[in-house]
Amino acid sequence: MHPRPRHWLPADGGQHAPTAARPLRAKLRAMAAASGVQPHRHPWAQVALSATGVIRMTAGHGTYLVPPSRALWIPPDVEHAVTVVEDAEIHTLYVHPSARFLPAAGKSAGSPFARWPECRVLEVSPLLRELVRHLDTRPGRGPASEREARLADLVLDELQRAAPVPLGLALPTDKRLRALCQAIVHEPLRHATLDGWAREAGASARTLARLFRQELGTTFGQWRQQARLAQALALAADKRPMSHIAAELGYASASAFSAMVKRTQGTTPRRFLGSRP
Q1: 13 and 126 belong to one structural domain
Q2: What is the model's pTM?
Q3: pLDDT of 166-177, one tens digit each?
Q4: Which residues have C-beta within 8 Å of that of residue 70, sequence separation ≥ 6?
Q5: What is the extent of the structural domain holding 183?
Q6: What is the bridge-based pairing of β-strands 45-52 and 35-40?
């Protein structure tokens, strides 16, 4: 589903670094398919959104697909890298540790760092997408304008309201299992069973099943299902019809795929895939 980047680009040199006086900074970057941003980390949090196209981000011990309907929150000091699945325009928000959510009804202002200590996938509302689009993306270290400060408050408020999506693939530390997992992410239907993957990996299916339980706390079938759901997001971002998505993922019909999404995600395929009626 996604090739290894042919062109690694360096991370920013800090020209968009957030500060206590300007706690939310925005950057817009156009990237070609099969390119990527090399692994890096920074002392502030990051929110990655795709305006167009699909990107894959490896952050911490997981890998996440980010189409335009989703965003990824990455806490400070977590190493991450970007792979561009198809030509994309990427909005990046950098969030300073001093940033606070606006007070919600009956609640005081809160810190996103305290609430979200780990990576999490969020739904992107139309309002959030438009607010981000109007943020100042020019590099520099000057103070925020009054308009930008107000937009930044609204962006943080929308992020606070964004629904989390139980999507993301944990990656193991065992080298054999990690290579197998990366192959499944790239082509989840290459083998129908764990036995097929085991022959390719040069290990027994029993050994791999044990490693899935020990390293990832799940079964091979459950993990591959998440990989297939990630592929469904990429196909939906490419405007593929539901019947085509179901066939590409190996389901006998669109209704079978729909039933799986409802059972595992607790929502409709349309909402899960970020489609609009």
Answers
A1: yes
A2: 0.81
A3: 778 888 888 889
A4: 49, 50, 121, 122, 123, 124, 165, 167, 233, 274
A5: 172-272
A6: unpaired
